[in-house]
Amino acid sequence: MNDHGVFTGSDTIRFERLFPGPIERIWTYLTDSEKRGTWLASGPMELKVGGAVKLHFDHALLSPTKEPTPERFREKEGGLAVQGRITRCEPPRLLAMTWALVTKDASPNEDSEVTFELAPRGDKVRLLLTLRRLTDRGTLLKVAGGWHTHLAILGDNLEGRVPRPFWSNHEKLVRDYEERLKSA
Fold first, then answer.
1. pLDDT number for residue 9
2. Which residues pair with residue 126 across a beta bridge?
3. Are the beta carbons of 98 and 112 closer than 8 angstroms?
4. What is the mean pLDDT of the chain?
């Protein structure tokens, strides 16, 4: 299994990971605000189709290793609030939601879509993460690097390791995905 996401269309990327189970454990890391906040973003989530999702991202809190926020993301220091809606909810196997991406000028874009699919694989759980409706190349690169980093931090948490710092990993991965996108 390749750690890098695969571009499956001009506006879509898919990641696949294998995490220690059981499936209910991984489901709680997707749906419980406190656990989700250790690797992605905290906030309430109404677990029903049409339910509201309010996520608060604060990348500096995801690791005990402190590092500066890159200049181009300074406006996100202290966190970023994102709202969306649940589009599918089939516990503990499938969760899909939308939320509005924000452009450089802070204007909302069309909603993107995030789908988590979980499946048992022995004592492990396969997580298939698909991100759709990413509006431009710059967004696709930031999202690819961001989700790759978030999934790595989730893996660190699930494996009992100290979570890696977000920003230095994100920046390296954005460069990696830029090279991958050139050859795609």
1. 86
2. 18, 119
3. yes
4. 90
Quick one: pLDDT at residue 139?
82
pTM of the entire predicted model: 0.92
Alpha-carbon distance 79 to 93, whole Å? 29
What is the pLDDT at residue 104?
A: 46
64-115 pLDDT, tens digit each: 999 988 888 777 777 788 888 999 999 999 999 998 644 445 554 558 899 9
All domains of the chain in start order, with CATH: 6-182 (3.30.530.20)
User: Between helices 23-31 and 137-158, what is the axis angle to 10°?
Assistant: 130
AA identity, residue 53? V
Residue 123 makes CB contacts below 8 A (sequence gap 6+) with: 20, 21, 22
Write the single-letter amino acid at 68: P
